[in-house]
Amino acid sequence: xxxxxxxxxxxxxxxxxxxxxxxxxxxxxxxxxxxxxxxxxxxxxxxxxxxxxxxxxxxxxxxxxxxxxxxxxxxxxxxxxxxxxxxxxxxxxxxxxxxxxxxxxxxxxxxxxxxxxxxxxxxxxxxxxxxxxxxxxxxxxxxxxxxxxxxxxxxxxxxxxxxxxxxxxxxxxxxxxxxxxxxxxxxxxxxxxxxxxxxxxxxxxxxxxxxxxxxxxxxxxxxxxxxxxxxxxxxxxxxxxxxxxxxxxxxxxxxxxxxxxxxxxxxxxxxxxxxxxxxxxxxxxxxxxxxxxxxxxxxxxxxxxxxxxxxxxxxxxxxxxxxxxxxxxxxxxxxxxxxxxxxxxxxxxxxxxxxxxxxxxxxxxxxxxxxxxxxxxxxxxxxxxxxxxxxxxxxxxxxxxxxxxxxxxxxxxxxxxxxxxxxxxxxxxxxxxxxxxxxxxxxxxxxxxxxxxxxxxxxxxxxxxxxxxxxxxxxxxxxxxxxxxxxxxxxxxxxxxxxxxxxxxxxx
Length: 508
Known about the structure:
There is one protein chain. The chain has helices at residues 52-60, 97-100, 110-120, 135-146, 153-160, 187-202, 224-236, 266-277, 279-293, 329-344, 376-384; strands spanning 2-15, 22-24, 46-47, 50-51, 65-68, 92-93, 103-104, 123-128, 171-174, 209-217, 248-256, 300-308, 349-355, 365-368, 371-374, 391-399, 401-406, 409-414, 416-423, 426-433, 440-447, 452-460, 480-482, 487-488, 490-495, 499-507. It has a domain at 16-308 and 344-363: Glycosidases (TIM Barrel, Alpha-Beta Barrel). It starts with a strand and ends with a strand. The strands form 6 sheets. Strands 1, 16, 19, 20, 21, 22, 23, 24, 25 and 26 form a 10-stranded mixed sheet that branches. Strands 2-5-8-9-10-11-12-13 form an 8-stranded parallel β-barrel, surrounded by 6 helices. Strands 3-4 form a two-stranded antiparallel ribbon. The protein contains 11 helices and 26 strands. The chain is globular and about 65 Å long.
């Protein structure tokens, strides 16, 4: 199989916001407890109770932003339960209690979350509760986090609890999935609540980056109705000449599964990659609706949660950790496809957070006491980190489509998925070969450059696309790096079957 990729260097899309490479952690199953928090007295190596191996490996991929404490968990969370001496913090009922019977110890709270973010050089993004606490408590949480020592009672309470310096949290989500578990609001009612909270907290700091709850997106229905109705209400109730009061509008999209996490045939392989690719249509449709009400694009489109959602029980905990799943090469391709689409729409997407970091859906890590492994998804984020803050440029792919079926319907999936960005004289190309069992010969044509020299190539590929890493074989899936000596205006490379690839080119 053959194809061409035209990298059109003069056609700039926009700067790839590093926050597209964000992460999401929630008090759900084994994400926080055991995945991230092991406790200061644990035999597991830790830094102030946070798993050291996770810190060390997460830092390497330049995590831009981390969203916490949920997710659905946030909608019954009271931030005051998670501050102060840990031995005095109350045990409470976790939002997910009816799913797994777990209570919440509140050992991991605001201070511990900020510690994690600082240890890995990530910006904190806090999702605040609007479904079950009054707006004043969101305002108080912001004051507690951000006001300087000696200024207010809540600032001094933070000092008393061990952190003299303000946390300077600038990203604040106002609610989560408020069309569902976050209160079952209508778009109009949620807009009213969002406006109320936004007005109150802006009295603390007009530079806060507030993020509104957007639609839960699906491949099977038109999900733009929530977006249209929310913005229509916002515009109708905004006085003429009033400035836009919030930073971002956040949608969620899980591409689901096809077959199961570990068992899938060739057709199901293509079905899941097709579902992952659908996020491009979602981005275009929602931004188009937003542009009606916000033509200057002062409000950013954010993808708060994304990834695969396979049936329970495939992870190493065998169902003990709610929603924990194993990740194969198929999940790695979903990650590569999704990040390429975000890069190619750098003019539309300002932040995205993969769900979730560890021991859950589409995780980068799996952990169980002293055991800790990297999933194939981790390596994709490592390979793609060079795009962060790069200038995305247009690419055109010429290659045949892959034909497969969903039910009785024949569907087309592009053979190749690609994105490209420039930093100074270095071109970063990431490319996914979607074909289950055939490599492809790709000719990269650099439009607008005299020539290019490959300075690095990394390939994530396996003989069997069902492969994954587990505690017994932690290195079964890992990338291979080389540097083919190729320098030309056109660069021909073989892209292995079912693979994610990084190609770095020095431009001349």
